[in-house]
Amino acid sequence: MDLIDVIVVGGGPAGLTAATYLRRFHRSCLVLDAGQSRVRWIPESNNCPGFPHGVSGPALLLRMQEQAASVQVPIEQARVDRIARDGESFELSAGERRWRSRRVILATGIVDRLPDEPWVAEAIACRAMRLCAVCDAYEATDLRIGVLGASDVVASHARFLRTYSRSVTVLPSDDGDGGEAGQEARAAGVRWLPAGGRLDFDGRRCVYTPPDGEPVELDTVYPYLGCDTIAGIAAAAGAELDDTGQVIVDADQQTRLAGLYAIGDVVSGLNQIAVAVGQAAVAATHAHNRLPFVARR
Ligand SMILES: Cc1cc2nc3c(=O)[nH]c(=O)nc-3n(C[C@H](O)[C@H](O)[C@H](O)COP(=O)(O)OP(=O)(O)OC[C@H]3O[C@@H](n4cnc5c(N)ncnc54)[C@H](O)[C@@H]3O)c2cc1C
Fold first, then answer.
1. Superfamily of 3-111+226-290 according to CATH
2. I need a labelling partner for 218 at 20 to 30 A (CA). Which of 110, 234, 237, 281 fits?
3. Which residue, by CA, sits nearest to atom 14 of ligand 1?
4. 13: Cβ below 6 Å to ligand 1?
C-alpha cells in the first residue's frame, strides 16, 4: 500500500477544498467519497461567495470537482468504515479496501432528518420546503412561512424568521407551548397552530391542516427535526465529540488525535459552505506545515 500524505474522507465543499489546497502544496492526496453531499439538495444558493446570480448545489459541486481535477486530485467512490492509528500513520478501510496515509481530514458532513413524506425531495426542489434559514430565508422574504418541529425547538427559529416575514406560523409536533421562547415568538407576532395536524404538498406549496381546523396554505416550510452527524468513524478512531455529536477540534481543525482533522458540517455549528471551505483551508495548511519538509527538485 502506498503511503499517501493526506486522505480526505468526504468529497463535499469542505473535502474538495482541502484536497485542492493540499495538491497545490504538492502533497499527495486522495479523496474518498460516498457521493451524498448535502449540496445536492440546494436548488439555488444565493449566499455562496462569488455567485452574484446564485448557483445550484450540483453546479457548485461540479465546479469544485473540476477545480480539484485541475490539480490532479484523485477521487474514489468509497464509504470509509474505519480509521485507525497505525504507528505514525493511519489505516483506512471501506469493506475489503485499504489505504494508508500520514494524515486524515474528515469532511463527512451531516444527514438532515426530514419529514417522512414521499414528496419531500420535490418540495425542496421547488423551495416549498427549505432546510436552512441562514442560507435562504432572504429569498423567503414576505412569503407565508411555516416552521415545523418540536415546540421547545421551533420557537426561536420562528422568531428569527419574523425578520423576514410578517406571516410566520408554527406547526408544532407536540402540545408544548415553547416555554419562554414560545412566549417571545408569539409576542413577536408568530402564529402558533395546534399540534397533531397534517402537512401536505400540492405540487407548489405546503398546506397544514390542524385537527378540526381549516387548511392553512404556506409558501414555504422550514422543518427543524435535527440531523445526524457522520462522526462515528472519527469517534471510533479516538476523536472527541460534543453532546450534539459534532467533532471537537482545536483552532487548526485538529481533533484530540494528532493528525486527524475534521472540517465542515461534521464540526461546525454554522453549517454553511463558506464556513466549510474556510475550515478546509485552515486544516490543509496546518497539515502541510506539519508534514515532513520536501524541497522541490
Ligand atoms: C436544502 C439545503 C440548502 C442549503 N443551502 C445552502 C446555501 O444556500 N448556502 C450555504 O452556505 N449552505 C447551504 N446549505 C448547507 C451546505 O450544503 C453545507 O453546509 C455543505 O454542504 C457542507 O459541506 P461538507 O463538505 O461539510 O459536507 P457535505 O457537503 O455534506 O459533504 C460530505 C460528503 O462526505 C461523504 N461521506 C459521508 N460519510 C462518508 C464516509 N464514511 N466515507 C466517505 N465519504 C463519506 C458524503 O457522502 C458527502 O459526499 C444547504 C443545505 C441544504 C440541505
1. FAD/NAD(P)-binding domain (3.50.50.60)
2. 110
3. 272
4. yes
